[in-house]
What we know:
By secondary structure, this protein is of the alpha/beta class. The protein has helices spanning 63-93, 96-101, 123-131, 147-165, 197-203, 206-223, 253-269, 300-304, 309-316, 330-333, 343-353, 368-371, 376-386, 397-409, 415-434; strands at residues 104-106, 136-139, 170-173, 227-228, 273-279, 321-324, 359-362, 391-392.
Amino acid sequence: MKNKKRLIFFLALSLAVCSGCAIRPDSGAGQEKYTFAPEQKEEDSNSKTEEEPEDTEYIPVDIEEKQNEEETEEKMAAEGQTADTKTESILAQMTLEEKAAQLFVVLPEAMVDGVSVVTKAADATKEAIGRIPAGGFIYLEHNLQSPEQVKEMLGNVQEYSMERIGLPAFLCVDEEGGKVARVSGNDNFGIAAIESMAEVGQSQDIVRASEIGNTMGEYLFDLGFNVDFAPVADVLSNQENSVVKERSFGSDVGLVSDMAAAVAKGLEEKGVFAVYKHFPGHGMTAGDTHAGYAYSDKTLEEIEACELIPFQRAIAEGASFLMIGHISLPQITGEDIPASLSHTVMQELLREKMGYDGIVITDAMNMGAIVQQYSSAKAAVLAVEAGADLILMPEDFKAAYAGILEAVQNGTLSEERIDESVKRIVGTKLKWKERDVR
């Protein structure tokens, strides 16, 4: 039912519109121009065309099959109402402080004072979650020492989160394969290194992409993770780009779309949420947002025909998460503001025009493109005001958290705006909590 409401996705493109984006001869692309959801026109049921035959062959309908379809649709609608009711009930019981806390995914070190490297979750972590029940945690390689240590640490965090707020935490990791991997290729875990996505793209082997998603999903789920910041859905349309060059599936729009969808499906099948990144496409920039300002002068029409296509595919597939990058699009927004802080990009383009209704998580807010221009509090408020649901890794978490609360108190942000994001977060957490993956 939900997918019927999704925008229609066309892999059909126009090379003339998007220089730098390639199309496979067998991809089906190039026949029509990619477009956002077309309007459907109603036709007079009594009207006939000259080509319409007077008599048509009667095709009997399997009544039992039809009834089963209707019952399935009714059941899905009822389940949707039940989920919405649960979400609303949980939301109604939360304080503003608890709701604001759910907007953040932070390093474990940001929660515990005086600890430079967190490798366990015990009393200090429990007390910190008791004070500020953060929405989730992101773990880096230095936090992960062995399978047993990670399982105990993540298991404890989930226990503390459930005790405190009745919801699981998003336990996140960057596990893309290649150089961006915290577990595979790490001698402490005995899991073979996974090749870069650039290599997978060059192979054009969709089955391999699916296998990678399944493999990563299985070992991440076993360790206790429920969110993976993968796949990279960036089209490498700027050959001067270095930040995603080895992380992207390549410059072929259709191939990138197919590969990203295959990896995501593999992860989801094993109980791990996939996070498509970095909307609206970091492969079109020459600069690196880790270091500072990065932009593209592409127009909306150009990115519609190239960079946006893998993300539109993700939306059509029912993606739960999209990560928004810090790249600037002055030809589209009319200013140099990063996409992660732009209402034009997140609300008008991603939500209204492309039809996305899942979680939007920012790229790490401790990156140069943010910290060189904004304080942690200012960046967090601007991101939520523009449409982000989750703030990832603010440079100063407690200042960012306080900034959100102050913004509600002074009227910069409404509590209704906070509720909008928390509904998505709670709904997604309930979906994970209740899913049967094995």
